[in-house]
Structures are given as structure tokens and as C-alpha cells.
Specification:
single chain, alpha/beta, Alpha-Beta Plaits, TIM Barrel, eight-stranded mixed β-barrel, five-stranded mixed beta sheet, 18 helices, 16 strands
Amino acid sequence: MVQDKTEFKKNQDEIQYLAYYDLLTNMPNRRLMMDRLEQTLNSSRRSRSYAAVFFLDLDHFKNLNDTQGHAAGDLLLQEVAKRLKKVVREKDTVSRFGGDEFALILQDFGESKTQAIDSCRLVSAKIFNAMKVPFVLYDNEHNTSVSMGVCLFVGKDLTCNEILRRADIAMYQAKQAGRNGMEFFDEKLQPKLEYRAALAIDMQSATIGNELIPYYQAQVNQNNEVIGAELLLRWLHPRLGMISPAEFIPIAEESNLINSISYFVLQLACAQLRAWQEEESTKEMRLSINISARHFGQTDFVDQIASTLQEYNCPPELLRLELTESLMLKSPDDIAEKMYLLKETGVTLSLDDFGTGYSSLSVLRRFPLDELKIDRSFVQNMLNNKDDAIIIETIIVMANKLGLEVIAEGIETEEQKNFLHKSGCQNQQGFLFSRPSPIEEFEEHLKTLQRSPSVEV
């Protein structure tokens, strides 16, 4: 009997490929990468030569998927894979670890730790340079960056899983440092990252347990009248007490929790605006809320805003959505279209942290904004820094000519208030007028604020 094994061999090869390679990028997958890491670790033990694992994560990759679709995201991953292959040696391994994460295994750095560190820095510089060139995704240019963590090892008693864990910890430290950077693993980082990981787990049940509490901070006009407030979320942790948004919001943004939290805030704001309609003294007050890039990127975001306004029957013109400039710079045509649809619902739009981005003037020209919010970093230094004062005065003049409202945040002294008034800033917000407080305290202080807004409460 004669049997043709050609088809059988072809099927076997395909099964082997599927088991060890990533179909999207044609790179080694996690399984093959772990096998090669084990070989590298054993070789390092024998030769006493340093090796390293680079753990890479694409910055803001979720935003691309949300705004341009998964096809654009897949194309970006393929292009990143090609560039990574070009910057390493033939004997090194570049693998797609999963999602938008890549792992690189680099070996034979020699017995000198200093030399090995220098070699890692050289590789990282090549990677950063490769990522600087814009990616072309379906005829559209897209800029991206990577955060990298590096674990340097020379055999010893480390396991493959421990090496990867250390590289992962270092990568998250690079993200915490502002992204688009590289960090080596440092054992001192571990307690802090374990604390963040614990907070991320606790946040899963925070909204259910009513631990996320809305606080309100007054906004006043040039006549010292309270015109509205900003809703600021606080986390009252059952064991750790009050946790600052500066701590928990970045954690929420790194997970899928930020969408549910943002929707929770939207519901709170609409419910509060509805309640204020029942009193003559508060029925004209507006309420500002911060919108996360991920929440804004949801395909049903505009419908969600419209339906929530209708559900709570609150005046849409009193709800102000604060958007960051960085959000607007990604797929500006799509963002502009969505903003015009939002305007049709009746809400107003504010550009938060104005002056801290890179394309502020183009943002003003392109998008249907109602307000600019001057960042507190300028306000804090404007009396002692001539440049900051000039920037603030320029923003105010420019906004007035464009027919936009201006509000400055972070006002803490009478001198700051007076300077802004003289410069033509209509509205202000800060500790000088009121600290963020729960709704009961906020409403209790409303009359006090209107009588003497310069008294800290």
C-alpha cells in the first residue's frame, strides 16, 4: 500500500505554526517566547553573560481601537512588529506577548553589568527612534509611543516567570513616569506597585459599595456670584480612608473601570441638576463633569448623553462636559463630528487644562467649544513668573475675541483673584471660594459663598 503523506505533513506544519506563532504579526507567541527565554536563562547560567528581557506596551492603544476600530489597531500592531524586528540582532527574539504587549529577549551582553546596561539603553534608543516615524494606517498618519520595562539578568536563581514579572513591573513604572520611556527593574518599586494592584482590585466593588462619593466645588463669576460647580469624585475606601482622584483615576483609566465610573458620574450630575431645578436659588446653576478619553471614545457616547439627559429631565444647557486637549488630537475629524453631535443635544463643552498641550490654536479653530479652562499650573506661578502671567493674559484675550468663556482653576489667594479679574477672566474656581465638599455641605455654604466668596470653607 502506498500513502501520500504530503497533505498530512502540511497539516502538521500548520498545527506547529499555530502553536508557536502569532497569526497577526507572524512573530513568536508567548509559548515560543517562554521556551526561548528558558534557553537564554540556561545559557546565561553557563556563560555568566548578561541577558535581558524588554517588556513593551503601546501607549494609549485602547484609544485607537475606540476611535478608529480594531482593524486600524491590528494594522498598527503589524507595523510595530516589523519595526521591532529591524532594530534587534538576528539571534534575539521579538514576540507578541498578547494584546498590544511585546516581549524582546536579548542575549550575550558580556560579563560586565555596566556594559550590559549601556547595551540595553542603546537598544531602547533605537526602538524609540523607530517609533517616532508616523505610522500610515489606511492613508491616515498615526503617532504612537511605547513604554518599556527591562529586566537584566545573569543566570542566578531567577525563574522565567520572575524575569517576566520584573520586566512587567518596570514597564508599569515607565507608564507612571509619563509613558514613552524605559525603566530598569528596581526592587524598591515593588511595594508601591503591589499597593496599586490592590487598589485596582478594590475598585471593582467601589461603586457597588457606594464608596465613590460626589464632591462639589463652586465656580464664581466676576461679581462673586456662584454660577455653578464642578463635580469631583472622591473614593472613601473602607480601610484606607479618603483616596485622592490623582491616585485612583489613573488606575481606573488603565482598566475598563473608567467607562462605568464616567457613566456613574454622568448619572449623578443629571440627577443633581434635576434636583436643583426644584429651588429658585439653584435652578440656573450649571454643573461641569470630566469626560475620560475612553468614555468619549465609546461608539454610543452621544446616545448615552442624550438618553441620560432625557431620563433625568434636566436642562441640557446646564450640563458642561470638560474634555482634554489630548483627546481631541487623536482622529480630529471623528472627534469634531462627535462634538457637533453633542452640541445638538444641548450640552456645552469646555476644554480642560488649556495651555498644557501642543496644538491649542488648531483645537480652538476646529472644535465647537464654549469654554476654555486655564490650568492651575499657570495660576499658581503667574504672580511670580512673568511668562505664566503673559500666557494667561493671552489666553483670555484670545478667548474673548473668539466668543468663548474663560474659567481659571486653582485660585487660592485674593491676589490671584484680583489679577485674573483685571485681566478679564470672567469665572474662577479654587480653594479661595470653596473646597470640594459633599452636596449637603456645598448647598449649606452656597449662601455664605455668595455673601463672602473669598472666605475659605
